[in-house]
Specification:
35% strand; 28 strands; 487 residues; globular
């Protein structure tokens, strides 16, 4: 990191901080209040995908903060510095906070001595809760949380030494995200979405306590014949795995409903309800079902939900996915001949692991921009930055974990796999197209049928514009219909 003054040549910039060669990245941060006043500047070392180290610049020199590695500085609200914890932490003053908590410091006390300032609790999640999003207005904190994968939103205010929370009465059984927050007034906007109801934008004025729906996106499909249900499957280790089922209202539970099962399960990313749009038009309107699985490795229940399927325990994600499949079959919602798996990126790895471990459970697999050869993933594209998620195949012990599920190595002679559709992009600069290419080549070498499509444009989305995206959707749903909707 260097300090560059206006109109100064880059060659004259002064180095102010340097990370380690093993860091994922190092970048500066500036803490400003709602009036624009700068209180602190510093540097963030991203040690791995999920671990950070913070340094603040002071007159006497840089000071490394005594925060845990799995913590993130959020910003300033109401004269308080906010920090989110992704691991359990006991402060130097012997105060303990649970993983997934939000804590705060008095800004003046923290600036005087950041190593001895006393932290206090803002929010602590319950057993089936997780902190989702944070945003700051002029005087308030806007917080969204998940409760059993359902969103709730709150206004938090710090007054007379304590935080108080007021619920924001947005529609229930939806996904609520903060789309904008004003630093000049106590106003915010929210995006509200669900599987069958078009996405809408809401406006909150906390000063006048007014809340109104501003606009709704156009309807993309007829949702009147479908319902959304939430179920839970029991994974191999006994953990309950929630999933959403979107199905026809008049469904006959005889195992005959063509069903697509979507999953991700990685990087603490949560799969939350969102309007199905093209899926509704191209799949649901034909009388079919769609399922979204909330697997460990994601963030639906906070950092522990992610860490339960990370590194040595990554197989847990694939076990959860298979448990959802078996639950769908047990409930006679669908059957292997009517079931297809869908996933992209980490989700492409998920589908690859599922069809190589339990190929008899699927009759279709849509594998989008996938990770596939996990023994060499660190050598391809941005792979080395994901060692925190999967482990390092250059280390013998960790290579053994990875080899246990790597789909490329698990494709073997003598098994029959569901005929997959593999999609990637020549210009994917995140997950290298070599993964998808190698998957297709291995299937070809084994004499196994497959479909393969590589778009030239589009990066990791595999589509650079709406026409290319429409073509990708047409390929996927034509494939799914032919594989699963036969008479």
């Amino acid at each position: 990191m260097k300090e560059l003054k206006r109109a100064q040549p880059l060659s004259e910039a002064r180095e102010i901080f340097r990370g380690e060669p093993t860091d994922v990245q190092t970048h500066p941060f500036v803490l400003r209040d709602s009036e624009g006043q700068i209180h602190v500047t510093g540097a963030t070392r991203m040690i791995s995908s999920f671990e950070y180290e913070y340094v603040v610049f002071r007159t006497a020199g840089p000071v490394k903060l005594n925060l845990p590695k799995k913590a993130a500085m959020i910003g300033l609200v109401g004269g308080r510095l906010l920090v989110k914890l992704d691991e359990e932490w006991t402060t130097p003053g012997d105060i303990s906070f649970a993983a997934g908590s939000l804590i705060s410091y008095d800004l003046a006390e923290w600036k005087q001595n950041p190593l001895r300032a006393k932290a206090s609790l803002v929010f602590q999640p319950g057993p089936r809760q997780a902190l989702s999003e944070l945003a700051a207005t002029k005087n308030l904190l806007i917080l969204t949380m998940l409760e059993n994968v359902q969103s709730k939103a709150f206004v938090y205010k710090y007054d007379q030494g304590a935080w108080s929370a007021t619920p924001i009465p947005l529609p229930e059984h939806t996904n609520v995200s903060v789309s904008a927050a004003s630093d000049e007034a106590d106003q915010a906007m929210f995006t509200v979405s669900s599987y069958l109801r078009p996405t809408s934008v809401w406006y909150l004025d906390a000063e006048t306590k007014s809340l109104e729906e501003l606009k709704t996106t156009p309807t993309a499909f007829d949702a009147s014949n479908h319902v959304v249900e939430q179920f839970e499957a029991t994974s191999r280790d006994g953990t309950s795995i929630p999933y959403f089922l979107v199905r026809p209202k008049n469904a006959r539970f005889d195992g005959a409903i063509p069903t697509l099962l979507y999953g991700y399960g990685g990087f603490q990313a949560s799969l939350l309800p969102s309007y199905l749009g093209p899926v509704g038009r191209l799949w649901l309107e034909q009388g079919n079902a769609y399922v979204v699985a909330n697997l460990r490795g994601g963030g639906e229940f906070g950092p522990q939900w992610h860490q339960a399927a990370q590194g040595a325990t990554k197989q847990t994600t694939w076990d959860d996915f298979i448990a959802v499949v078996e639950d769908l079959i047990r409930r006679k919602i669908t059957s292997p001949r009517r079931l297809g798996a869908v996933g992209g990126s980490q989700g492409g790895l998920l589908v690859g692991a599922a069809i190589t471990q339990r190929p008899e459970l699927f009759n279709a697999a849509i594998i989008q921009v996938p990770l596939f050869d996990m023994i060499r993933y660190t050598k391809l594209g941005a792979g080395a930055s994901w060692i925190g998620e999967y482990g390092d195949p250059a280390i013998a012990e960790q290579r053994a974990w990875i080899k246990g599920y790597s789909p490329y190595q698990k494709l073997v002679a003598g098994k029959t796999y569901p005929v997959p559709l593999i999609l990637t992009s020549t210009k994917d600069d995140r997950v290298h197209p070599a993964h998808g290419r190698k998957a297709a080549a291995k299937l070809a070498a084994l004499g196994q049928p497959y479909f393969y499509y590589e778009n030239i444009d589009g990066g990791h989305s595999a589509a650079a514009n709406l026409m290319e995206y429409a073509r990708e959707l047409a390929l996927e749903f034509t494939y799914a219909s032919r594989r699963l909707c036969f008479e």
